[in-house]
Amino acid sequence: MIPHQWAPPCNSECTHKYAALMQIPWRVFCKKGCDADGDTWDECLGECDEICYKDPVLKDQQWSAYIDRSPGSATYSEECFRACVAGCGYKFNIPLEKVNQVHSRPPKPPIEEKPAPPVVESMPSDVSKPGPDEILSTSA
């Protein structure tokens, strides 16, 4: 058996598409698309969505998204999704045109920062300032 025959055809396609050293993470996610448990194209895409985007691990516990193992940043999640979808395309023999038409989640809107209220310095008018001949007493 020749080495290029050791891997399933889908995984070999991923290895060929993401051959560069800097593309190894995307090769891994492509192969995750190949190895996805889904029996249909749509199920495979759903698995890519779960793999590549941070979601709460515990239901109704938004903070638990931080322990999700997906890539994290929006650009990495997008690249992960594209690679995983490519793997699904290889697995189900989907034409490249259809694979390229798949869109990932829309990006979350940026968090709006509320402007801080203006700081107004005002001194009460009934408090008088000590004069030069008054000595303030302080205790140590």
Secondary structure layout plus pairing:
Blueprint: H1 9-17, H2 24-34, H3 41-52, H4 74-92, H5 96-101
Helix pairs in contact: 1-2, 1-4, 2-4, 3-4
Verbal overview:
With 140 residues, this protein is an all-alpha fold. 41% of the residues lie in helices and 0% in strands. It contains 5 helices and no strands. It has helices at residues 9-17, 24-34, 41-52, 74-92, 96-101. Helix 1 runs antiparallel to helix 2, helix 1 packs across helix 4 (74-92) and helix 3 runs antiparallel to helix 4. The radius of gyration is 29 Å and the shape is rod-shaped.
Q: Main attributes?
A:
Defensin-like protein, single chain, 140 residues, mainly alpha, 41% helix
Radius of gyration: 29 Å
Question: Number of helical runs?
Answer: 5
Main pleated-sheet profile? none
**Helix coverage percent:** 40-55%
The unreliable regions are none
Distance between the termini: 88 Å
Strand content: under 5%
Structural class: mainly alpha
**Order of SSEs, N→C?**
HHHHH
Shape: rod-shaped
User: How many beta strands in the DSSP annotation?
Assistant: 0
Tell me, rounded to a whole number, the average pLDDT.
77
